[in-house]
Amino acid sequence: MRIGNGYDVHEFKEGRKLILGGVEIPYDKGLLGHSDADVLVHAIMDSMLGALALRDIGYQFSDTDNKYKDISSLLLLEKVNSMILKKGYRIENIDSIIACQSPKLKNYIDKMREKISNILEIEIDRVSVKATTTEGLGFVGKKEGIEAYSVCLLKEIGGNYD
What we know:
five-stranded mixed β-sheet, 162 residues, 31% strand, alpha+beta
């Protein structure tokens, strides 16, 4: 077994869609980033990469490379999953947290879990997504942005397919 953790943060920006866990959330602002700025999926990818010491998403998908400009983070998640499988591992489970003062996310959590589990080709009960506020503290509490955390447990399935 291998374990990795991930973290990501993005600031709010007017004129962008808010995408979290591959789901478009109705809100007056989106997140600023080179890709779709899906902070949750970015944290999950970093936890997956970290479990096998494959660096981070900035290394794997540089924000200076125009082929990743405005790309769906779900496509990048699919690529990271392929890397994991090629190394002879599969996801045992993912536990993640979105820290967001606003908007409220409880009605979108199951859709996020479904999207992520479908991309990773694992059962939905292996993907945990939780949302919390920061009780008005810090940049999240001031509604300046969103942060996300993730832990991923990988299980060796054998073989290295590099």
